[in-house]
Structures are given as C-alpha cells and as structure tokens.
Amino acid sequence: xxxxxxxxxxxxxxxxxxxxxxxxxxxxxxxxxxxxxxxxxxxxxxxxxxxxxxxxxxxxxxxxxxxxxxxxxxxxxxxxxxxxxxxxxxxxxxxxxxxxxxxxxxxxxxxxxxxxxxxxxxxxxxxxxxxxxxxxxxxxxxxxxxxxxxxxxxxxxxxxxxxxxxxxxxxxxxxxxxxxxxxxxxxxxxxxxxxxxxxxxxxxxxxxxxxxxxxxxxxxxxxxxxxxxxxxxxxxxxxxxxxxxxxxxxxxxxxxxxxxxxxxxxxxxxxxxxxxxxxxxxxxxxxxxxxxxxxxxxxxxx
Length: 302
What we know:
Layout: H1 14-24, H2 29-52, H3 61-85, H4 89-93, H5 96-110, H6 131-134, H7 138-153, H8 155-181, H9 193-204, H10 217-252, H11 289-292
Helix pairs in contact: 1-2, 1-3, 2-3, 3-5, 7-10, 8-9, 8-10
C-alpha cells in the first residue's frame, strides 16, 4: 500500500507546513503564542458581547460594534487559514472545533440580515476548550480520555437505566394525575398526564421547583415515596460510571499522551513517543526528535 506521506495531498510547501505548525500545534513558541493571542481575542469578544447587553453600557454600542467586526474578521481569516493548512479540509470543517469555529463567526454576518443574532456569539466561549492543548495540560487530556472511555463502556447500562426512569416517571405521573383529579382535596393544576409526568421528573431528579405539588393525602404520600426513591435512583448511574472509570483509568494510567494533533484526521491523544497517528496512520507533525531538527524519521508508514 502506498505511503500516506507519498500521497499527493501531503505535498505541502514548507511555508504551508510551518503555517500548520503555528496554527494547530502548541509545541513550538510561535504556535503557543498564536494560541495565547487567539484565547485573548476569544475572551475579549465574549466580554464585548456581554457588555453590549448591559443597559448602562449602551452609550458605547458604536465602539462595541467596531470591536466585534475586528474580532469577526480576525476569526474569519483564521478559519480559512485553518482550512488551507490541513491535509484534509473536510475533516476539519466537519470536526467539533471546525463547526464551533464556523458558528462563532456566522452571527455577525447574520446580524446584517437578522437582528439580534449577534448575541449568539457567546458560543465563542467553547473555543476556550483549546486551553487544554495550548498549555499542554496532559493530565487533563488524560483524565478527559478516561471519562470518555468510561462513558462509552457504560453506555448500554446507562441506556437501560434511562429507559427505566422514563417508565417510572410515566407510571408515577399517571397515578398522581388520577389521585389529584379524583380527590376533593386534589390540586387542580394536575390538568393532564404530561404535566403530571413533568412533576414526576422534577421530583425524581430532586430539583423540586415547587410550582406544582399534590394536595391530596394519597398524592402527598406518593410524592414522599418518589422523593425517597430518588436517592437510590441517583446512586445507580454514579456506581455504573465510577466502575467504568476505575477500569478505564487502570488501562490508561501507564500511558503518556502528547498534545500533537494529526494533520490528516485532526485527532489527538497520541502516545508521547508516537511517530504516526494511531487513528489514520498519518505522520505526526514534528513528533519525532529527528524531525524537530529538520530531518525525517527513518521509518515511514507503508
């Protein structure tokens, strides 16, 4: 099979490769400084959007508009440069961060047609998730992967548990509707089974808004049973996920991870000594000591 590095799509100029290193990687001083500046712009943009909604700050609305367009133009240029520098642009465009990057610049342009959409720009706060990679917080990356692995391993048990909860609140909602609607002391606000199911969900989750409560003795008794059951119900998913977390952490605790992002599939979480992506087989950019000195590693994927 032909080497992925010999693929025509990988024949980037040194300038293009350097640009990718600065924008996508945080292993070099230039890349780290770029991402720090990017985070400052993101924070400043979110603050401007928040201040623009404060009535006492409306006198500065013109300044806020100018600043917002500066931020939007910067993020737009950055977005297209990211598309230009990756080996597979479609991968980036359809990735989580690619979608967030696109959504973060659309509201400003949509505001030219639809008023009020500029407030949606607070979604840019999601881009702050890059802080984990920028500052090479390896422990956080490791723990994040452990949590995702635990949730994936326990998804079947969680789905069964959620199905049980849906059945339970439906039954309790139906019973409380019958009790309250057929009792002289019942609460007339229980007007339908769906609204009664809403009460059951609020009670079982221990949220307890108190906007609708049973008045009849039997309804209050049933409510007490449901609240007591809630403590046991809450403990079930905790035990499931905790057990999966323990197993996932044992499997991963002996492994170290790097902040390198594959330029082909844009996935991270590679072993710190890896030369090639474990997901697609592509060469990791500057992942090998020899590459950092300007050379290529001797072994190439086939």
